[in-house]
């Protein structure tokens, strides 16, 4: 046996599978309830996938001083309250579905003895397990499509063949005619336990069974005990005296690398009852063997194999297609493993110990195989998996090596005694779920059109079959012997004929009855079929109309959506256009806005400029008018002062006449003569600088302009005072302006050259007295004035100046030092800051240094010179004779007013310039100590 097991593997090409897709072994855990409620429980179901094991009292496992609880996770965990149906739906149903779709499956229960393996697999009375439920589901699914018995024939090489229905019928008859061997189980009695288990009443079935196939179910039941395989369904002749020990079977590998038990009984079953009956038979035999051979039942592995053969109907849908290649044989192996506990725990002795050891050996091999498989898969190693080391692993080799769906139910009893064994079971189970098995490939679809069976039934296929059956039966009629009577005494022929005829008659009657029965059966089938067809038709019609409605609804929805899409597209188009227009508008408006804002800014700046200009104009005008007002006030003041002065002078003269009566009389005419004498004025410039003249030479770069402006004048109208003359003249020329350098300069700029000459001559002629006197502008104006006043200008010769002249140099402290190279210097002068009578009494010449701002912004220094006279009243009077103007100017700038060539001109010519009205005016200042007019200054005409 061992040698056979270790036969080297043949390198046969494998059946095409789907190696890419692999599924892990599905491991489920079922926790059975405790037998007694007072038992200690050491397993808890945490959730749907987790169980926790904790050591029982007095059996504590410590790791690092901590009490250790272990949790194990599985695909699903079924607690104590889970019923068989729930377990079946989750674990076994998919395997049955696979079986019907032509795929292999393996389901085994694993656990220690008493943990509920058999309860789970077979079930308990009144509570059918997975096995009867699987059978029930299979027959519920394939019931109406089952082939006639013997249409499928299993061969002894794990293969299947097909034969026509007639051959199958004949074979059936032959088998029926065979004497039934006498076995203890030969007489079929209905076992109440069996009836309880089979009564699953689940009506569970696979929905999408291929109706164009015909199916047949074959079951076999084997037991692996002590590494021997026994066929539990083998019909051994009953030996009541010395029963033979059962013959063990050997394993072989078929052409698809599936292992099979050679010569194993495989029973074709047509219903759940029949199948379960076969199983029950095997079960009974197992029990008997255990009893007879003194075996421990829990030490054996039982394997119930359900094989499903299926082949397509031919094109007519009438008969099964006679093509072996088209047959699919799938199998579902339901394995109830032996208890996984260790030998010593069972207290087995002798023969039993050996058995137990072996049993453990099988399970050990199973563990080793799983471990190595897992290692190979996880770490890519290629270790040989020792399937052949035990019958158990060898039998299921191809499930792990090849393809199929493998599921394991780990059964655990939570009682404390099983704690250690349960731990082992859990560890193995957890490891097992890390092994992956190739998913079985889908069965190739046969090329025939679907719905063949249905069409054939509509055509009345069953009638043809009936005819064939009748013909077949007629052939079975006993042949008629020769009816020819050659001898009158022939008493054999007739009786023979009669006998045959009687036989035939009997047969005919039997056939008639059969036919009647068949007809009846057929009628009922037909009725059933009709009703099923009608219901199916109704159902299909309903579905069809439903679908049509749905399609119509969907079409309408589609149309509606299309319309909506079109509308939305149109809307989008319109919106896009509008958006473009708006954008255009926005751009235009923005441009407009920008231009407007620019315009506004321009206007604002214009406004600001205008405001500033107007402001400027306003200030200018107000300043102008202020100045004008001041000027007028000053003019008025001067006028009034002059008037006052003239009156004062008259009064003085009258007083003098009154106070100096007789001895003074002869002088009066001279005095009057004196008065009548024209006022002699200083004529300047002198042709050459006199020794006393403070003006020195003029350098090229920086010229001091000597511009004598005050002239000695003689008044032809001797009895009219100079002041009154000036006043009168001022009244005549109200439009004249103060000697403002700016206005003069401006006028000069505007006037042509000749006019400028004229003006300049005017200026030279003009008299400057404390900066308030202004000159008439036009010569003709002046001439008119001159004529009116009948003034005669007479040049007065320069007074000879002795070297002994003494000067009062009056320099007001407000003067600014000019810091020019040339400075006016008067030797032997008495320099005073303010004019004092004391100083004047000592000197006969007076010079006032006066500064003012010229029109070009330069400081103009004026040296106002005069002669000091003693007045009759004992005071001092100064008659101004000349004004020297000292000014800095750039050589490239203004035209020189006084040049050496001018100076060199004849005196007459020079003097002729001074013949205008201005030169005819004279001013006299009398300084009196303790004068009531102010700090010692008094204006009065001082006749010479
Ligand atoms: P095993 O086959 O593992 O040795 P069994 O299936 O024979 O164990 O179970 C032993 C006993 O426990 C049986 O009497 C069975 O009815 C009972 N039992 C096992 N599992 C359950 C369960 N889930 N619910 C109720 N009873 C159970
Ligand atoms: Mg059992």
From TrEMBL:
Residues 657-701, 731-764, 887-917 are annotated as: Disordered. Pfam families: Kinesin, MKLP1_Arf_bdg. It is found in: Cytoplasm, Cytoskeleton, Spindle; Midbody, Midbody ring; Nucleus. Keywords: ATP-binding, Cell cycle, Cell division, Coiled coil, Cytoplasm, Cytoskeleton, Isopeptide bond, Microtubule, Mitosis, Motor protein, Nucleotide-binding, Nucleus, Phosphoprotein, Ubl conjugation. Residues 907-916 have a biased composition (Acidic residues). Residues 684-693 have a biased composition (Pro residues). Residues 544-613 form a coiled coil. GO terms for molecular function: ATP binding; ATP hydrolysis activity; microtubule binding; microtubule motor activity. InterPro entries: Kif23_Arf-bd (IPR032384), Kif23_Arf-bd_sf (IPR038105), Kinesin-like_fam (IPR027640), Kinesin_motor_CS (IPR019821), Kinesin_motor_dom (IPR001752), Kinesin_motor_dom_sf (IPR036961), P-loop_NTPase (IPR027417). GO terms for biological process: cell division; microtubule-based movement; mitotic spindle midzone assembly. ATP binds at residues 111-118. Residues 660-679 have a biased composition (Basic and acidic residues). The keyword Chloroplast does not apply. GO terms for cellular component: Flemming body; kinesin complex; microtubule; nucleus; spindle. Heterotetramer of two molecules each of RACGAP1 and KIF23. Found in the centralspindlin complex. Interacts with RACGAP1; the interaction is direct. Interacts with ECT2 and PRC1. Interacts with ANXA11 during cytokinesis. Interacts with BIRC6/bruce and USP8/UBPY. Interacts with ARF6, forming heterodimers and heterotetramers. Belongs to the TRAFAC class myosin-kinesin ATPase superfamily. Kinesin family. Component of the centralspindlin complex that serves as a microtubule-dependent and Rho-mediated signaling required for the myosin contractile ring formation during the cell cycle cytokinesis. Essential for cytokinesis in Rho-mediated signaling. Required for the localization of ECT2 to the central spindle. Plus-end-directed motor enzyme that moves antiparallel microtubules in vitro. This is Kinesin-like protein. It comes from Melopsittacus undulatus (Budgerigar). The gene is LOC101876424.
